[in-house]
Amino acid sequence: DADVTQTPRNRITKTGKRIMLECSQTKGHDRMYWYRQDPGLGLRLIYYSFDVKDINKGEISDGYSVSRQAQAKFSLSLESAIPNQTALYFCATSDASGTGNQPQHFGDGTRLSIL
Amino acid sequence: QKEVEQDPGPLSVPEGAIVSLNCTYSNSAFQYFMWYRQYSRKGPELLMYTYSSGNKEDGRFTAQVDKSSKYISLFIRDSQPSDSATYLCAPSLGNQFYFGTGTSLTVIP
To answer: Which of A30, A59, A101, B86 could form a disulfide with B92 if both were Cys (CB 3.0 to 4.6 A apart)?
Structure first.
């Protein structure tokens, strides 16, 4: 089983719908992240969480919300989806232990299309 | 100015060639530097992780950081078709990672 699991893998929906993307991890990491990836723009950070009680906005949080339900679970919601939120979404985790920045470990992504 | 600049390619090389992938960055405070490999329809996977200036080698892969020039490189020796992927550089500072847009590499058998 994958260490970082994202569901669903693909989703097509309509403008205005509420959507939730889910992420679960078995790595035991405290830190979790949500990114979106667009051609030519690379990975951009939406939200991140350093523990269950910690939620922080990233570079492009407008139109998104998150919930950290447990150490292992971090979900991303689009309250009212719009077409320019069509993208590939990735969840990532990292360990908080040790010195310096620990590398991030990614799931295989959710391909979201909003019509 | 973007924090990280990376030539998107695409780059196409014959099998066995030496590949050089590069990024430049603007923030001299970056301390940790990572390279990720991303296959089609998969998430990025960590390839190399280095701290400050210098070289780090792992098998056919060498990561090089030149902080004075704000330049990071990934070299792939004896490239293989299985190396065909997109490569992303990612310097970091504090709790933030700054990803390049990625360079698409194809190794032709």
So the answer is: A101
